[in-house]
């Protein structure tokens, strides 16, 4: 059977894991690992632009990551601020749009002002959308979405008997109106979703690699894309329609 050329995934989600292990293996501090992880994000943006990709969601800090020592949390947020300060001009000039998905609660006013400024400055950019999932957890997202939806229904006097549809709920997710995830990549050998984009990844293809996030580069991305191209997506139907 002739193989047909498959298209690139529209939306790629990345669980950037392994910064700590990368640092430990080199006798460095965990914070150095996160710094190297930030450089890998930079490379991923370059590769994604070169490949003409549309949407990338990056898991940068989960709602569960608050369990980590306060010194590590501080270093992650300092790096994020530094990342935006040092790369925003480049991001803007290359036509990248920045979005934030996640709860604003618990984020400092400095962090909020940086991500809001990045999103605002880049809002009209069309080449590539990079969605930073920061203080993000799917369960929190779905619960928050559901209560916002219920409030809105109450305000509009919609009967509580009227069933809630998936389409209606999706409008209240942090990621709205991004398309659902086609390809989810997790680095560093773990095979779990860790509360990332659970609703949006319902039919995502899952690519796991042992590569630690700071070592992830163009070659790894291309490997994931070529693996994705070999999947047959059925969405519950049959292969040929
Ligand atoms: C991922 O790397 C980055 C964040 C969770 C912020 P880790 O810090 O989880 O690295 P490992 O899993 O300890 O190696
Ligand atoms: C997931 O990685 C969160 C991010 C990459 C931001 P973790 O390292 O926090 O996940 P677990 O704890 O191994 O599941
Ligand atoms: Mg980890």
UniProtKB/TrEMBL annotation:
Substrate binds at residues 18-22, 30, 34, 62-64, 66, 68, 186, 192-194. It comes from the Bacteria. Binds 2 magnesium ions per subunit. One of its GO terms (biological process) is polyprenol biosynthetic process. Mg(2+) binds at residues 17, 205. CDD domains: Cis_IPPS. Its cofactor is Mg(2+). It holds the Pfam family Prenyltransf. GO terms for molecular function: ditrans,polycis-polyprenyl diphosphate synthase [(2E,6E)-farnesyl diphosphate specific] activity; magnesium ion binding. The active site is at residues 17, 65. Keywords: Magnesium, Metal-binding, Transferase. It is an enzyme of class 2 (transferase). Its EC number is 2.5.1.-. InterPro entries: UPP_synth-like (IPR001441), UPP_synth-like_CS (IPR018520), UPP_synth-like_sf (IPR036424). Homodimer. HAMAP family: ISPT. Catalyzes the condensation of isopentenyl diphosphate (IPP) with allylic pyrophosphates generating different type of terpenoids. Belongs to the UPP synthase family. NCBIfam families: PRK14842.1 (NF011415), uppS (TIGR00055). This is Isoprenyl transferase.
């Amino acid at each position: 059977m002739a193989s047909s050329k498959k298209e690139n995934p529209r939306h790629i989600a990345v669980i950037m894991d392994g910064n700590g292990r990368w640092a430990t293996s080199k006798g460095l501090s965990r914070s150095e690992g996160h710094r190297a992880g930030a450089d890998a994000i930079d490379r991923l943006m370059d590769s994604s632009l070169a490949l003409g990709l549309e949407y990338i969601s990056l898991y940068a800090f989960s709602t569960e990551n608050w369990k980590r020592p306060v010194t590590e949390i501080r270093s992650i947020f300092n790096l994020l601020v530094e990342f935006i300060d040092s790369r925003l001009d480049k991001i803007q000039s290359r036509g990248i749009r920045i979005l934030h998905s996640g709860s604003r609660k618990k984020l400092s006013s400095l962090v909020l002002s940086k991500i809001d400024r990045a999103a605002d400055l880049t809002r009209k950019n069309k080449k590539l959308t990079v969605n930073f999932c920061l203080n993000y957890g799917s369960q929190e997202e779905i619960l928050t979405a559901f209560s916002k939806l219920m409030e809105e229904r109450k305000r509009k006097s919609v009967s509580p008997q009227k069933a809630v549809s998936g389409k209606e709920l999706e409008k209240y997710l942090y990621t709205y109106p991004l398309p659902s995830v086609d390809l989810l990549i997790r680095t560093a050998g773990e095979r779990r979703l860790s509360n990332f984009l659970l609703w949006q990844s319902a039919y995502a293809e899952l690519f796991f690699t042992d590569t630690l996030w700071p070592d992830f580069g163009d070659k790894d991305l291309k490997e994931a894309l070529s693996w994705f191209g070999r999947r047959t997506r059925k969405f519950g139907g049959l292969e040929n329609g």
